[in-house]
Amino acid sequence: MQKTYSSHPIVRQDADLSSDASDNLPGAGEPSRKRHFLGLMNLSKLLTGEQSPDGISSRIIDGTLPALTLLVLTLMIDLLIYPIQASAHTEGLFIYFFVILALGLYSLDRSTAARNIETSRALWGMAAGLFFWHAIWMIQLFANFDFESPGPLLLLLTVTMVGLTLWRPVLPLGVKFYLLSFLLSWYSRLLVIQLLGLSTSGLIPAGIFYLTGFLALVAALLCIGYLIYKAEFRVQRYWAALILWQVSLIGLSVTLGALF
């Protein structure tokens, strides 16, 4: 019998034979097809926003839901102060004050609890700032002093400077959210009261007051844009929620001041 020889090396022939044999085995192409299918599924979830951590819908909900909740709480607490004062007088307002103070203390405690995750501490910190701010607001009703007077302004500046000094080296995340929530609530209320008083008295044009509401709307849109394109982590979305809550409150206050 005559033998035939190939020009390819024997090792190359063996490799070719083994590859041909593996291709003919049942199920040999399943891993690659499975990887391809999973890749298509992940791409579909990313485009539709179904992927939980980074989906667009998840980012918007994480940022807007806390802001909306805090906005509704702010309006509810504010709207209850004067009816309670009118119907139950000082005694009823005292009870309301201690309820708000207790809620603030409880929220502040939860914002520093080590057993809570970071995002939970952030939410409790924002709530604590909201409650403590309203407690301060009711104190000025009891004491009957003006928030625009030099004393409260110096107190606000002192608290701000101390908070900035302790921000990085000392304050944990929950207390940072508490402090910023408390200070921004104070500054935003002071801004609206000052601009409304100055525009009503004619010291500044009324257009400046309305321009503040427009700028607040622009800031709210920027916050939503940040949530969609930049806020990859949930804590970042809660920082954006805090800013969104405050600028929405300013815009709503300007709208109500213009209407009434």
Task: Explain what the structure shows.
- Helix content is 82%, strand content 0%.
- Residues 1-29 and 42-53 have low confidence and may be disordered.
- Helix 7 (206-229) runs antiparallel to helix 8 (234-259).
- It has 260 residues and is an all-alpha fold.
Provide keyphrases for this structure.
single chain, 260 residues, mainly alpha, 8 helices, 82% helix, globular, disordered N terminus
Short description:
This protein is mainly alpha-helical.
Mean pLDDT: 81
Number of domains: 1
**Level of helix content?**
over 70%
Helices, by number, come to 8
Radius of gyration over C-alpha positions, nearest whole angstrom: 30 Å
The major sheet is characterized as:
none
What is the general shape? Answer: globular
H-E order: HHHHHHHH
Number of strands: 0
Q: Which blocks of ≥5 consecutive residues have pLDDT under 50?
A: 1-29, 42-53
User: How much strand?
Assistant: under 5%
Structural class: mainly alpha
Distance between the termini: 111 Å
Helix and strand layout, with pairings?
Blueprint: H1 10-24, H2 30-48, H3 56-111, H4 118-143, H5 150-166, H6 173-201, H7 206-229, H8 234-259
